[in-house]
Specification:
Blueprint (H helix, E strand, L loop, with lengths): L11 H33 L5 H31 L10 H31 L2 H9 L1 H20 L18
Helix pairs in contact: 1-2, 2-3, 3-4, 3-5
This protein binds protoporphyrin IX containing FE (2 copies).
Family: Belongs to the cytochrome b561 family.
Keywords: Cell membrane, Electron transport, Heme, Iron, Membrane, Metal-binding, Transmembrane, Transmembrane helix, Transport
Protein name: Cytochrome b/b6 domain-containing protein
Length: about 170
């Protein structure tokens, strides 16, 4: 049974997975263009240099790990619940946070699924849908980071602190 609202902190697994996803997404940003070369070269049957091949496969592996980490995080949330939304923030901020989190999850799960589908079908159209979601993801991450900083410095809740490793504060 989900016990949402009864916890005062995120599980250590959930915190670990949150920051793992951050590292993987930054890596996708850095090696993304090598994946684009790897993809074009593979479709056209061109010879590719070793760094393109290695970074291309890195993209596939880390992208799949984002999918797994986001899915496990959602499962952990369903089983163990999540800490309540901070009380000393206005309702609009709480609603905006919920919507942003839901959209973040949708893209974190959807992007790798589309990437894998493109890879196994060799479809450029699906690859196009995959990369289409990159800018919306960046916009959501920007909004999310602004929200996390606003929680800390403006609304002065413990929301940011409780997402830090080893910290068990309530909001
Ligand atoms: C959340 C995880 C992922 C993110 C954030 C992500 C991000 C990106 C980005 C930003 C690009 C465009 C690079 C550029 O044009 O400069 C790209 C390309 C690509 N990605 Fe991913 N990716 C993820 C997961 C995956 C996975 C699991 C696969 C599976 C094979 C994959 C397959 C591809 C392919 C085939 C392309 C080339 C598409 C093209 O050039 O038209 N991606 N990805
Ligand atoms: C790639 C970048 C990031 C992604 C994809 C991401 C994703 C997410 C997601 C999906 C949640 C929802 C948690 C849930 O309701 O289950 C979350 C929570 C959270 N994130 Fe991030 N995050 C990123 C970067 C950051 C950064 C840089 C910070 C700090 C400045 C941060 C701080 C937080 C905090 C404090 C929460 C918990 C909110 C609460 O307790 O209600 N995140 N993140």
């Amino acid at each position: 049974m989900p016990v949402s609202g009864h916890r005062t902190h995120w599980t250590s697994l959930s915190v670990f997975l949150h920051w793992s996803i951050v590292v993987f997404v930054i890596a996708q940003w850095i090696e993304g263009e090598f994946m684009a070369d790897f993809w074009d070269g593979t479709l056209d049957g061109k010879a590719l240099d070793q760094s393109t091949i290695i970074l291309g496969y890195t993209h596939i592996v880390l992208g799949t790990l984002v999918l797994v980490a986001a899915a496990v995080r959602l499962l952990d949330r369903f089983v163990n619940g999540r800490p309540p939304h901070p009380e000393n923030e206005p309702t609009w901020a709480s609603i905006l946070a919920r919507v942003t989190h839901a959209l973040l999850y949708a893209v974190l799960l959807g992007m790798p699924v589309l990437g894998i589908a493109a890879w196994f079908t060799g479809s450029d159209a699906i690859a196009g849908y995959h990369t289409f979601f990159w800018n919306p993801l960046l916009a959501l991450i920007g909004l999310h980071i602004a929200g996390a900083l606003a929680q800390h410095f403006w609304f002065r809740t413990g929301a940011l602190r409780r997402m830090l490793p080893g910290v068990r504060h309530t909001a």
